Amino acid sequence: MTKYAVAGFAIAFGLALAGCQSTQQVVQQKEDLLSAAGFTPQPANTPQRIAAMKKLPPNKFVQQTKNSQIVYVYADPIVCQCVYFGNQAAYAQYRSMVFQQRLADERQMTAAMMQTSFDFGPWDAPFMY
To answer: How many domains does the chain have?
Structure first.
C-alpha cells in the first residue's frame, strides 16, 4: 500500500471518528485545551455579559484590540455559558496544542491501520503496478 493510500485512510478514519463525537464533546475538548493554553473563562452571569456574549459568534475565535493589546475571545453560550479571554501567547499555545493533538491522533490511526494485514492472494493483484 502506498504512503498516499495510508494517509488517505488515516484521514478518512479520523473524520469518521470525529463524526462519532457530539458537538458538546467537541466543544468541551476545545475548552479544555483553551484552559490549558492559558485562556481565562469569565462567566456570562449578568444581563450585560449575556448580551455581550450573544454578539460574538458561538464557539469561534474573534480577535479584538483592547488598550493596544490583541485579545482573543471565544464565546461558549452552551457548555459553560462563558467567554474565554487570551493573549497572543495563549492563542499560539492553543494552536500548538491542537496541532500536537491532531498529529498524535493521526499517528494512532496510522498505527491501527498498519496492524491490519490483508491477504491479496485470492485477487492475484491485477490492479497493482
So the answer is: 1
